[in-house]
Each structure stands twice: as structure tokens, then as C-alpha cells.
């Protein structure tokens, strides 16, 4: 979802032309995220609080999954 505003020069105007106004809401067609095999040589980045990232469940976030790759990887079965 996004906020769509129409401008005339630098001024916001009311009554956008419906033929050129982009939609404010659109369904997403998300594809599954690619999965990569765990990298046994990965190391957590120094200065990143990976223990806290695990505690507050941030391992699914792209940054922490990379910065804390060793701590966030699932246990071997």
C-alpha cells in the first residue's frame, strides 16, 4: 500500500487524472525466498549482538541472518 499524491509543479492538487494516477493498493505476488545450504565456515560479525538477536527472534531478518550466520543457523539434525 502507498500514499498517492498528485502534484502540479510543486503544489499538491486535488482531483488527479484517473488515467495517469497510479493505484494506491495492489496485491503482492511474493515468491518464496531462495534457500542456500548452511555455510559451515561462516562466522558471526564482530560487534553484532547475536545473543540478543536470537533472544528477540531477529534471525529471520536479512541483516541478522547474515551478520549472525553461525548463531542463527538451525541446529544440525
From TrEMBL:
PROSITE patterns: PLAC. Keywords: Signal. It comes from the Eukaryota. Residues 38-76 form the PLAC domain. Pfam families: PLAC. This is ADAMTS-like protein 2. It comes from Saguinus oedipus.
Amino acid at each position: 500500500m502507498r500514499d498517492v499524491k498528485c502534484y502540479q509543479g510543486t503544489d499538491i492538487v486535488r482531483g488527479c487524472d484517473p488515467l495517469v494516477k497510479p493505484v494506491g493498493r495492489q496485491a503482492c505476488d511474493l515468491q518464496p525466498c531462495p534457500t542456500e545450504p548452511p555455510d559451515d565456515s561462516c562466522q558471526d560479525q564482530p560487534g553484532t549482538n547475536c545473543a540478543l538477536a536470537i533472544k528477540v527472534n531477529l534471525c529471520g531478518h536479512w541483516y541478522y541472518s547474515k551478520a549472525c550466520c553461525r548463531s542463527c543457523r538451525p541446529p544440525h539434525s
